[in-house]
């Protein structure tokens, strides 16, 4: 997943960013309302984590602004104050969940998984093409009723490609979905990832092909018999 973390506590943001990256996510870490709002409106994030108190403003105002702009990204708010009023105003601003500091990192990860499942249930129950069945709620892939194991990045790429339907996904767009701002990536990195995903689908006997269209990008198509 591509995650936006908006937190001005450097030690906390570094620790969370590192833990989320270890879990296979691409994480953009920003510290101000201005930077976060610009990034949020530019990048299609899967999840956002926003602290209430930021150096240049209120995280609740940030969430309210992006919601007004039509962005529905599942959002978890962080706060150091365990008061019902603070939580109510945050939820009313458009946050989907709330977590009070200090917290266990495992609880944060569990809440993010719950938000991801909830979002997946709203957007789609199951995604199918050929004999490939992808469940976005559990991020599980089966081919001809057999489970296929994918890495977190391979899952993210497959999710993006299968949701695109019959539209081509440009290589640049796929790379920006898979990697955070601070990560150095190249066309070769995306090509290598696609090659691994294509090989796994082929070895599993998938009746789909992950086709590269030169100069355009990638598309997932059902193979013709």
From TrEMBL:
GO-annotated biological processes: regulation of DNA-templated transcription
GO MF term list: phosphorelay response regulator activity; transcription cis-regulatory region binding
Short name of one Pfam family: Response_reg
InterPro entries: CheY-like_superfamily (IPR011006), OmpR/PhoB-type_DNA-bd (IPR001867), Sig_transdc_resp-reg_C-effctor (IPR016032), Sig_transdc_resp-reg_receiver (IPR001789), WalR-like (IPR039420), WH-like_DNA-bd_sf (IPR036388)
Entry keywords, A to Z: DNA-binding, Phosphoprotein, Transcription, Transcription regulation, Two-component regulatory system
CDD domains per record: trans_reg_C (cd00383)
DNA-binding region: 124-222
Domain Response regulatory: 2-116
GO cellular component, one term: protein-DNA complex
List of residues that carry 4-aspartylphosphate: 51
Domain OmpR/PhoB-type stretches: 124-222
Name by which UniProt lists this protein: Transcriptional regulatory protein QseB
Organism expressing this protein natively: Palleronia marisminoris
